[in-house]
Write a structure and sequence with these properties.
The structure is a single chain. By secondary structure, the chain is α+β, with helices and mostly antiparallel strands. It is built from 5 helices and 9 strands, in the order αββααββββββαβα. The strands form 3 sheets. Strands 2-1-3-4 form a 4-stranded antiparallel sheet. A hairpin with a 2-residue loop joins β6 and β7. The longest helix is centred in the N-terminal third of the chain and has 13 residues. It is globular, with a radius of gyration of 14 Å.
């Protein structure tokens, strides 16, 4: 079920013209709805989700963002999966925001994020492969391959 959701969400977002919008930076009081951490303390890990009603939710890493995407109503009552219009993560090397549905995520490396083991996002596959080699990663995943089971294993 998780794989199907992410695959359909990715296809919806890739075909959406909403991705022409740009990500915004979190303010100093923005908290991750999953873990409660202040997001602006970790700009190199920031991820964000925007909704149809222009609500923006910030995360202290891709792992918490994926947890939110799997069950948004668990973290923010009234928000549903179908409300999500944009997803951004921070590219590990450039520190630029990138489309989270198109990123390459390295799993199982020796690099940890603010919440421990993390999915490390990259815009370019070749950079993800180099990082995987240099940091003893286990695999490279695409957006639709990240499942709730995998996220539980990271905790």
């Amino acid at each position: 079920m998780g794989n199907l959701f992410y695959m359909l969400l990715g296809l919806l977002l890739m075909s959406s013209t909403c991705l022409a919008d740009s990500p915004v930076k979190p303010g100093p009081k923005e908290k991750c709805p999953v873990c409660g951490m202040f997001v602006s303390k970790y700009p190199e890990w920031t991820a964000q989700v925007k909704t149809k009603k222009n609500a923006v939710f910030f995360f202290d890493g891709a792992k918490d963002m994926f947890k939110f995407l799997a069950q948004p109503q668990k973290y923010v009552p009234g928000i549903e999966k179908k409300d999500v219009t944009e997803i951004y993560v921070t590219d590990y090397y450039s520190l630029n925001p990138i489309d989270g549905t198109k990123a390459f995520y390295v799993l199982g490396s020796d690099v940890y994020g603010p919440m421990g083991r993390e999915l490390i996002p990259f815009l370019k596959e070749e950079e993800a492969r180099a990082f995987l080699r240099d940091h003893h990663g286990k695999s490279i995943l695409r957006f639709q391959e990240v499942t709730p089971q995998l996220l539980r294993e990271l905790d």
